[in-house]
Write a structure and sequence with these properties.
This protein has 14 helices and 8 strands. The chain is α/β, with parallel strands linked by helices. α9 crosses α12, α9 crosses α13 and α10 runs antiparallel to α11. The longest helix has 29 residues.
Length: 302
C-alpha cells in the first residue's frame, strides 16, 4: 500500500523504514530539511512540504501524522483538510488527547475524509520489535489499512478498539500504567541502592527477569542501563511527562475513580523537576516551630 507520513523523527522515521521493509510505498515530510534523507536512501520519497506530499500520493490518499500533541497536530490537520479530498484518510499516530481526536474526527467527517486515531507504543525499538497499535475511528478505514498495521505491528500487536478517540483513550491508559510501573521499579532499586549490601543492580535486574512475577521488558532495559553505567551518575533525576499521565488522572477525577498509584507517579515526576522544594522547606520550618526540631541551612549539604 501507499502511505504518506508527516513527522520523520525517532518514531516516524523508524515506522517509515518498517513499512518499506514490508513492501509498502512511503512518501514522507518533516519540517526539518535534513530529516528524511534516510527515507530516500531506503527507497522512500521525500517531500518538501505537506502540499507536495499530498500531490505525490495516489487517490484515495492516506496520510499518517506523527507530530507532537497539541498545536502541531492541530495545524497539520488543518492544512491537510484543505488539501485532501473526500474518500482520503487521515491517521493520527501521535499521543493526542482522545477528546481532541473525537473533535478532529467530526471535522474530517464534514469533509468526508476518513479518520483513524492510533495509539502507538514501541519507542525506538519499534523498528526491530514492531509497534503496539491501539486503533480507533472509522471501521472501514481500519479494514482497508489493515495491511499497514500488520506490517508495523508484531503478531497480535494491533487492535481496533472502537469509534473515534478509542485508540488514543487506550494509549492514555497504557501510558498511565507505564507511569506506575516505572515508579515502582525506581523505588525498589533506590531501596537496594541505599542498603549496605552493595547490590549489583544489573545482576538483580537480570535475575528478576528469570521466572520472577515482576519480569518485564522494562527490567531488560534497566539491566542495559545499569550495564552502561552502574550508578547512573551522569543522569540527572529530572523526569518529564508528555501529557498522558495528566489526562488519565483528570479522567479518573471526572469519573470519581481512585487512581492512587498512577497519580502518585505523576506527582513524583513533578517533584523531580524541583531543584529545591519550597513545600519541603515549609514543612521543615513548621517542625522547628512546633517541636523545636533542627533544620539544615540552605548552604548545608544533606
Amino acid at each position: 500500500m501507499q502511505l504518506g507520513i508527516i513527522g520523520l523523527g525517532r518514531m516516524g522515521a523508524n515506522m517509515a523504514q518498517r513499512l518499506l521493509n514490508g513492501g509498502h510505498q512511503v512518501a514522507g515530510y518533516d519540517r526539518s530539511r535534513d530529516t528524511g534523507k534516510d527515507l530516500e536512501s531506503a527507497g522512500g520519497v521525500r517531500a518538501s512540504s505537506i502540499r507536495e506530499l499530498v500531490e505525490k500520493l495516489a487517490r484515495p490518499r492516506a496520510v499518517w501524522v506523527m507530530v507532537p500533541a497539541g498545536d502541531p497536530v492541530t495545524e497539520t490537520l488543518r492544512e491537510l483538510a484543505s488539501l485532501l479530498s473526500p474518500g482520503d484518510t487521515v491517521i493520527d499516530g501521535g499521543n493526542s488527547f482522545y477528546k481532541d481526536s473525537i473533535e478532529r474526527s467530526n471535522r474530517m467527517k464534514e469533509k468526508k475524509i476518513n479518520w483513524l486515531d492510533v495509539g502507538t507504543s514501541g519507542g525506538i525499538w519499534g523498528l526491530k520489535e514492531g509497534y503496539c497499535l491501539m486503533i480507533g475511528g472509522d471501521k472501514e478505514a481500519f479494514t482497508r489499512f489493515e495491511p499497514v498495521f500488520k506490517s508495523l505491528a508484531p503478531e497480535g500487536g494491533y487492535l481496533f478498539c472502537g469509534s473515534a478517540g478509542a485508540g488514543h483513550f487506550a494509549k492514555m491508559v497504557h501510558n498511565g500504567i507505564e507511569y506506575g510501573m516505572l515508579q515502582a521499579y525506581a523505588e525498589g532499586f533506590e531501596v537496594l541502592e541505599a542498603s549496605s549490601y552493595g547490590f549489583n543492580m544489573q545482576g538483580v535486574a537480570e535475575l528478576w527477569n528469570r521466572g520472577s512475577v515482576i519480569r518485564s521488558w522494562l527490567l531488560e532495559l534497566a539491566a542495559e542501563a545499569f550495564k552502561k553505567e552502574p550508578e547512573l551518575a551522569s543522569i540527572r533525576g529530572y523526569v518529564e511527562d508528555s501529557g498522558e499521565g495528566r489526562w488519565i488522572v483528570n479522567e479518573a477525577i471526572e469519573k470519581a475513580i481512585p487512581l492512587p498509584v498512577i497519580t502518585d507517579a505523576l506527582m513524583a515526576r513533578f517533584r523531580s523537576r524541583q531543584g529545591e522544594s519550597f513545600s519541603a522547606r515549609v514543612i521543615a520550618a513548621l517542625r522547628k516551630e512546633f517541636g523545636g526540631h533542627q533544620v539544615k541551612k540552605s548552604e548545608e549539604k544533606s
